[in-house]
Amino acid sequence: MSYLRSVGNFRFGPDVRNSMPAPGLVSRAALASMFAIAALVPRAAAQSACALAAADRAWIEGLLSTWDRASREALQLDAAPLPWIVLFDASCVWHVNSAPAAPPPQAVPDVDLTFANRALSVRGLVHAGAIRLPDERDIPPRPMAFAATYGEPQQPFLVMAMPSLWRAEPRHAADPRLESLLHAVFAHEMAHTRQAEGIGQRLDALQHRFALPDDLDDNVVQRAFGDRPGFQDAYERERDLLYRAAQERNARSRRLLVADAAAAMQSRRSRYFCGADAIYAEFEDLFLWMEGLGQWTAYRVAAAEGLGDVEALAFTRRDGKYWSQDEGLALFLVLDAMVPAWRSEVLEAPPASIPQLLADAARLQPHFAFESSCQTANEFP
Length: 381
Ligand SMILES: [Zn+2]
What we know:
Layout: H1 3-7, H2 28-40, H3 43-49, H4 54-74, E1 84-88, E2 92-96, E3 108-109, E4 113-115, E5 118-120, E6 122-126, E7 131-132, E8 138-139, E9 145-150, E10 155-161, H5 163-167, H6 170-173, H7 178-207, H8 220-225, H9 231-247, H10 251-272, H11 279-304, H12 309-317, H13 323-338, H14 342-346, H15 354-361
Parallel strand pairs: 1-10
Antiparallel strand pairs: 1-2, 2-6, 3-6, 4-5, 7-8, 9-10
Helix pairs in contact: 4-7, 7-11, 9-10, 9-13, 10-15, 11-12, 11-13, 13-15
């Protein structure tokens, strides 16, 4: 059985994290009353209430064409069917491209929507405050976007709130770039859906060697080590070296910066990821790959929507609060600058170690490997 299935609620890429519901936020009693209310909504009313308005349909088409362009031009991916996409506002949920048996029978086929010249099914229904996801969990209608997996074999799905829910939050209401932000977020999550198989394979392999923590997600390293003395300084130094390398136009200077960043990363890992913590190097590689690709895709979407490179970078980094996203983006920027064929090495499962790819590309001498070389405790009193 796949790890993703066994933990059920593993999510990769809850990108608007402070909008994410905490597990159990909606109590069982509240859910029961929501379902009771839903049962009272007459079927005809549910159908007409959740017809897709023209503006909403246009917005969804905008999301899909953003991804179509990013996947073809930035990622150069082969065309693939869309995953199951769950979109919702305060009262309705629309299941785009859902599995044939779902959602429940009271849902009605809505307007037709196409992607890559193929018709997509769209089914709208009233959710009455609890949105049932493909993995059978329920979430409240809040501004959020994430990708996860369901079923056996594991298949990815994507969840995203419609614009009305984002605009209802003061921090988004006045944002003139909300449309671009949502396009970038959607592309980030869509990139994750293309990584899902590789993520599952890597986690399956890891769980044969290590006991995986219950709170495994893309912030696991930051959460476990962020407060340890010296860790944040070490992380920031290496991140800054990578962003300098990304902006460096001279190839030799860039290689030197990459060498410095690789040495800094190796030094940090040798100090902190020792003994029982050795698994964090594996997690770090996995989540830098995931979040780096997601953020690099988002950055390319922002640039394609008319922001200049500098502005698109600031737009995508925002406050850099999530380390795997921020360092991951720097790694992919450098990778794109140094390794012309990176897509064939990185997009296909199983995921590679991006720092190792960069060290190889910089032709560091002697051959540089991110191997475990833990220092003994008394070297760092
Ligand atoms: Zn992500």
